């Protein structure tokens, strides 16, 4: 299994636990990193995914909600919403992962960890959100400017 795929699995496990418990994000992340024998660069990638999703979760959730309205976030499976958050973060905010790779990895994670219908659902939502990459990126910038202005 490739190192970055393993890193995504570790990130998904951490985000899942953080999302459905009141455990400290930093503690959960450190435990996931300790439990998985990742290379130094894969561990850094895992950190970047978890930290990025948590930092931008409000914006990510807004776009997921807008483009999957038949599935309210609070009713969506924890796994599905965290796979979506990770993939959108990767291709629309972080920008270091090609869109096709981010979507393919998300679908693979859904096949491994989600329900039978999860891969199709994940692919459909991400396929729609690809057209909104720039809008998502701009929403993050506006939010950061707004928060920066209040400090």
What is the CATH fold-level name? N-utilizing Substance Protein B Homolog, Chain A
The tally of beta strands, per DSSP, is 0
CATH class: Mainly Alpha
State the CATH superfamily name. Answer: NusB-like
Beta-strand content: under 5%
Helix coverage percent of residues?
over 70%
User: Outline, from the CA principal axes?
Assistant: globular
Number of domains: 1
Order of H and E elements: HHHHHHHH
* Name of the CATH architecture: Orthogonal Bundle
Distance separating the two termini: 43 Å
Low-confidence blocks of residues: none
Q: What would the keywords be for this entry?
A:
0% strand; N-utilizing Substance Protein B Homolog, Chain A; 151 residues; single chain; globular; mainly alpha
What does this structure look like?
The mean pLDDT is 94. Helix 5 (78-94) packs antiparallel against helix 6 (99-113). This protein has helices at 3-20, 25-35, 40-55, 57-67, 78-94, 99-113, 118-129, 133-149. It has one domain (3-149): NusB-like (N-utilizing Substance Protein B Homolog, Chain A). It is mostly helical.
